[in-house]
Structure formats: structure tokens, C-alpha cells
Amino acid sequence: MPARPGVVWPLRFHEDEGSGDPPLVYALHEGGAGPDGYAAYRVRPDWGEGIARHVVEVEELLATTPEGWAGIWRFALDLDLVGTVRAWLRPPDDPLSRLLADPRRADVRVRDGVWLRLVEVRAALAGRRYGVEGEVVFEVRDPMLPWNEGRLRLEGAPEGAACSRTRAAPELVVDVEHLAAAFLGDASFGAMLRAGEIEEDRPGAAARADRMFLHRPALWSPAEF
Asked: Is the CB of residue 138 less than 8 Å from the CB of residue 155?
């Protein structure tokens, strides 16, 4: 569940009485150990041609267990007299498509929402944790911020990391923009390599970096900022 200060929750679900929007409705899913999922949604009436095709607009839907995910999504999709369920700001690894009997019924659209610029590459790489223990030597290119350029040895592990300058032969040659894309743990060095966006000077380095940088569940924010 998102960790929010107490004052933020009312702001997140603030309702403007003059907007004309239907009121928010809240649903809580309770598992064997207590609450493990919730949804905040609106039902927008649609009686076109005298037939109920109401639209459910999911403002937020989250869970902490597989049972919670399945239960709260089932609730949202089983609401009576509804023709369409719309949800925004969903995590990229939302389990919904795996829960549907026919995944083709889900019209998934991916949009970019976060732009990341690494200003201090060494500090950034040393400041995060990594999925597995490993080491990669990067040749970083950054024509705008020259202090980032050069060869960096990253030694990362789940407990922490260190990043320092080195004279060792580079294994991956990357522009800072591609390094930033991988920094949040979702973009793949392997995909960048196949697209010709980065260079691999040591076979297997991209796959090794992917294992280190990968983060699951995928990093994501349930609110705009």
C-alpha cells in the first residue's frame, strides 16, 4: 500500500462539489488476515438508447496479496449495469490481464509519466540497491554534464552499492539517457542493445546488468505529481 502522511489521504480523494462528477465510492477487500485491498471509484451513468451501459472510473485500486488483487478487481468488474470499466495510473505489472478469462478484453495503453535525468551518475548508482550481487564497468557518455563522462565500476548488491572511476576496459557503453531509463529498474539493457542504443564490449554484460537493475514489483506511483 502507498505510504502517505495522514494529511495527504484527504487531498488524494478530494471531491469538488461543483465539478458535476459522481461521488467517489470506496470498497474494501478483507482476506483471512484482515484488509488486503481497496478501491476508490465513481459510477458515471449511461442510459443511451434506454440500455444501461454505466461507466466505472477507478481512481485507485491496490492490494497487498494475490487474493486481494483478484478479489478487488473481481468486485470492480462485476458491478451491476456496467458496460465499461476505466482505470488510470495503473502499475505496469498490474495483474489484471492475468486475471481475465479473455485478456483481449483489456485495452491497455502505456504512456510515459516520469522523465529522469541523472545529474550525479556515481552518486545515483551508489545510492540504490540491486536485485542480485554483481559488477559492471560502464563507459558513460554525457556531453551536457562532463563530470559524468568516463568509465565507472559499479559493484552492486541487495544490501547496497559502490561506484567509482576505473581504468578497466568498459563492458557497456551507454549514453546517460539510457542509463537513466534503466535506473528505475524496468527498462532493459538487453532491449537497448538489440535496438542499437548501447554498445556491449563484453558479451553477457547487458544480461548481467539487467539482473542487477531489475526491480519487481515495478516502481510506480499511484498519483500524479
From this structure: no
Domain 121-213, what fold? Nonspecific Lipid-transfer Protein; Chain A (3.30.1050)
DSSP state of 121: H
Calpha distance 194→184 (Å, rounded): 20
**Average pLDDT over every residue of 138-151:** 97
Residue 183 sits at φ, ψ, to 5 deg, of -60, -35
Q: Is the pTM of this model over 0.90?
A: no
pLDDT greater than 90 at residue 10:
no
More confident residue, 115 or 189: 189
How many other C-beta atoms lie within 10 A of the C-beta of residue 11? 10
Is-contact 42 16, C-beta < 8 A? no
What CA–CA distance (Å, rounded) separates 75 from 106?
16
What pairs with residue 26 in β-bridges? 40
Provide CATH code, domain 14-101. 3.40.630.30
What per-residue confidence (pLDDT) applies to 44? 94
Looking up cell 539482473 gives 211
With beta carbons less than 8 A apart as the criterion, state whether 189 and 127 touch. Answer: no
> And the C-alpha cell for 129?
540497491
Residue 97 carries which DSSP code? H
What is the C-alpha separation between 60 and 99, in angstroms, rounded? 18
> Cα separation of 209 and 193, whole Å?
12
